[in-house]
Amino acid sequence: MSATNPFNPFANVDFSKFDFSKYDMTKLLGDVKIPGFDMEAIMTAQRKNIEALNAANQAAVQGMQAVAQRQAEILSQAMGEVSSVAQQLAGAASNPQEMTTRQAELVRKAFEQALANMRELAEMVSKSNTEAFAIINKRVTESLQELKTLVAAK
């Protein structure tokens, strides 16, 4: 048992250093014969489960990359607007009333833009999560159908 976590003997094991490609579980377990147990069907189902998890992870990563890219675009846009605002306010510096009016309008526009950006990013995250969940949900449904078919065959 691990000294840092007595409840998890694998807590300090770095599984990334293991080369699982050397082990073909189908070959290792293929010779195991248990009456009424279709090892090939189980291995196929597990392979499909792993493929679905990989696809869901890929969808999630792509979604997060799109969010990060959009955040960078928003930041770039904001920096350009800061420069524009500074120029506008510099032109109104001689008239305090005009400057106050412009500042209020700029704050209102900035607030509205910030809300729109947050809404857009939230929608992007939601879409990404929905796509990843749909992949997992489809595989769970298929897996249950496969299990039902296996049980019915016995």
- What profile does the largest beta sheet have? none
Distance between the termini: 40 Å
Name the overall outline. elongated
Rounded Rg: 28 Å
Mean pLDDT: 83
Poorly predicted runs of 5 or more residues: none
- The portion of residues assigned to helices is over 70%
Oligomeric state as shown? single chain
Relative strand content: under 5%
- The secondary-structure element order is HHH
Structural class: mainly alpha
Count of helix runs:
3
Task: Give me a quick take on this structure.
This protein has 154 residues and is an all-alpha fold.
Features:
154 residues; mainly alpha; single chain
Task: Write up this protein.
The protein has helices spanning 25-30, 39-91, 96-153. By secondary structure, the protein is mainly α. It has a domain at 60-154. The relative contact order is 0.10.
Secondary structure elements and their pairing?
Elements: H1 25-30, H2 39-91, H3 96-153
